[in-house]
Amino acid sequence: MNELQQYVLDLPLPNQVFFTLVETTAQLVDVSEQYWQSKGISGARIRLLVELMKEGGTLSPSVLAQKIGVTKANISLLLTPLENDGLVQRKPHAEDGRKWVISITDKGRFLLQRHLPDNRQAVANRVQALDESELTQLLFLLNKLKRG
Prior knowledge:
There is one protein chain. With 148 residues, this protein is mainly alpha-helical. It has helices at residues 3-9, 13-38, 43-54, 61-68, 72-84, 106-126, 132-147; strands spanning 58-59, 88-92, 100-104. The protein has a three-stranded antiparallel beta sheet with strand order 1-3-2. Strand 2 (88-92) and strand 3 (100-104) form a beta hairpin. Helix 4 crosses helix 5 (72-84). The radius of gyration is 19 Å and the shape is globular. The mean pLDDT is 92.
């Protein structure tokens, strides 16, 4: 075994935690993504609809991009198919006609109402290895890490 390979394999505990968290998150995201793909839509597009609903149904494209962690250019690539499918609509900003806002449509709301419960259950099934007290403890620890 060479020195670099040994370095990559011998991770200090904080790095083990980080990479295990990344791998576990990727597996859980994959469970959710597979569910949405089986319904003919990407998880990233669903996330846009969920973020819109969290904020009352309407947001600017730039705020939406920031909330899901993509660039302003990428938000257009995600929004166009949703708009074409009638799940969101683009409207002029009420106060600044040069800007746009994105609103979820009734069709978008229906899609979420119909499929979010089953998606949440698919993810819950994946974390069922932990009991309620372990989940509570994990949530506490993750929030502690998030706060810094």
